[in-house]
Amino acid sequence: MRLFPDPTTFIQIGPLEIKWYAIFILSGALIAYLFIKSNFKKKGYPSSLAEDLFLGALLTGILGARLWYIAFSDPMAYISNPLRILNFQEGGLAIHGGLILGAIYAYFFLRKKGYHFLDVADQAMYTILIAQAVGRWGNFINKEAFGPVIDQSSIAWLPQFIQEGMMVNSQYHMPTFLYESIANIIGFLLIHFVLKKVAKLKRGDLVYAYLMWYGMVRFFIEIFRTDALLIGGGEIKIAQVTSIAFIAVGILGYLGVFRKLFPVEKPTLIFDFDGTLMDTHNVIIQSFKQVFSEVPTTHELSDEDYDWVVGPTLKESFERFVINADVDALEARYRKLMIENHKVLADQMPGAVETLKQLKEEGYTIGIFSNKKTDMIQMGMDQVGMSPYIDVVIGSDLFSQPKPNPQGIYLVLDAVKGYKDNAIMIGDSAGDIQAGINANVYTIAYTRNEKRKEQLLNLKPNYALDHLSEIPSHIRKEGLWNHNTN
Questions:
Q1: Domain end residue (candidates: 296, 313, 345)
Q2: Per-residue pLDDT tens for 333-353?
């Protein structure tokens, strides 16, 4: 093993050489990853998402950068000797190809995981500027990515080691690598510390800001670079053509053209059932009273106790209030009483069916996530004519973790192929709202119970309403489901 065997090599282990170029690229990528991980944490994305996305995008990005370089350098030389394609030690990466293939990978990866590409990319793509800024110092070590011959006096202000590094073939060259590195750092700082803080951003705006900034920087840098890839061996620099495309996409995106041409999918609406869509309060209370009258309880239940049982699972309620509870038997008795009482005491919450009909006509996908069993929910929906407007029902028999665990939210989204970062949870209990918060989705609190209202508001839902009819006008606002919160 030899450290620094030559100016361009970091370490040599037998025949294997690790170049300084690779060290700088990986170091820049690591710094970018740390910012991505921090951004994801603030947005509530799982840490595993950052790790998996970063690794996959990095590997495909390197491959894309290599293939892009080969395509616009001397492709026939590589076709005649395919093993050269994998010989990264000889150099030859073009960042535009890496960005394009990495973005393609990220799109399909995120879609499979149930996340919206632009939402996630907003938190990740601009950090590539840091990776690019650090990576350019690998070009400096390799004595590449420089500009035309210049007089030493024009770079006399730079540290001596940079001046010496710009001596190529006995002549001083413009340090374009340095100018691009500095410009990329400035761009990162402006986006991360200024644009994210002061602008009212919409989905994709940070991606478009990155494309505009890097496109402009690279276009002007390419004017001076002497080792640029040319289209067909001519005089047109492929990096400038690609940069113009980046700038155009960035401008059109930031101005909202793509949002008009390709409207963002409306959010999936996920409702709780009891107390939110269906007024079953008296049904639940009456059924519990009948069950508790037949078994020994821990104490004489108060109105507050009966109010508490509206929301948790049956198992939780019976174990809390019944001595030596036979949960299975109690649940069976409760369900029988519920069916009998439901027909007499249950009704829709005020305006529920009308609101659901309106939402369905406006193109929303609607699901139900409830701690109640699916067949009981279906019975209630059929009773009031609600079923035609519901796309999927996830009752407690279909998930293992009750609210406030968000498992049921994810099951709804999986069933309708919705996005995990483009959904709204609407409910009347603390468990409903907390489940939405835990899933990092928009939350709407609704209750006619004054005792619960303060408890719900303490959880700080995104919005609170007094009547279901308010929902369509509120969520119709584009800012709600086409937003970028940081």
A1: 345
A2: 998 998 888 888 889 999 999
